[in-house]
Protein: Metallo-beta-lactamase domain-containing protein
Amino acid sequence: MSAADWYAHKSLGDGLFWIQERFYQSENRANIWLLRGSHQDVVIDTGLGLRSLPDYIDGAGLLGEDPQRKNPLLAIATHAHFDHSGGLHQFQQVGVHSAEVDAVANGDNFETATWLSDREIAEAPSPGWRARNYRVKAVQPTHILQEGDVINLGDRQLNVLHMPGHSRGSICLHDRDNKMLFSGDVVYEGAMIDWLPYSHVSDYISSCERLVGLVDSEQVDQVLPGHYNTFGAKRLHRIASSYISRAGTCPAKFSTFAWGTLAGVALRAFNPRCAC
Structure:
C-alpha cells in the first residue's frame, strides 16, 4: 500500500492540515497535525509510521513549492506513546520532551506503550504484515524540548508547555497569538488515561489545573487534540475541571491502580525485549 492510500488529510485553513491514517481503525488512532510557517513547518505527532508520512505530505503538495523554504520539516511528538511517535524515525528533525528522550532514542516499546492488534488494521500496509511484529523504531531526537521553549515557525510561534500526567514527557504546544492549543493526549474528547506506565495522577491534576487557568485567562479558543475532534475553550474547561473533581476520589484511585497493574503486566508480556 502506498503512502497516498494509507493517509488522508483535511485543510483547516491558515496553513493547518489534519492528517489521519485511514486504515488504522481504532480509538488509539492519533490525529496528525501539519502546521505551516513562513520559515519552518512542523508536524505534530506522527502516527504509527507504517507508511512514509513525509512521502505523503510531499506527494499531496501540502508544503507547496516555496524555493525560500530551506529548513527540513520538524516532527514533534506530544509524547512518546506508539500511536504518536511511531513515525518519528522518518524525519530528519525530531523533537520530544527531555523526559522521554531515552524512550525514543532506545526504541523502548514498554514506555511507548506499544500495543497493536491485527483487528485494528483494516487493510495491511504491506503483504504479510502482522501487528505482533510492530515496534516503534528508535530515533535520536535533534530537539530536546523543555517547558518554556519556543518553536519559531517565522510568522507564528509555538510555546512548549510541559503537562505531565498521561505520560511523564507529555507536552502541549500553544500558539498564543492565535489562541490555539495542540494538546496531544493531555486532554481530548474521551476518557483521560492516567494508568499507563509513567502516568501520574497528581501530575495530571496539576496539568488540568493549568488548563483551567489558560481558559480563565482567555488564552485558548481552539483545542486541537491528539484524538477525536477539535473543540473550544468551554469544553476544555469542563473536561479539565471534571478530571480534577474525579481523580482524587477513592473509586478513581482504585480504578487507576487496577488498570495500571493490568497495563504493566500486558505491556511487559507484549514487549518481552524491553529493558524494564
In short: The first helix runs from residue 3 to 6. The longest strand covers residues 7-13.
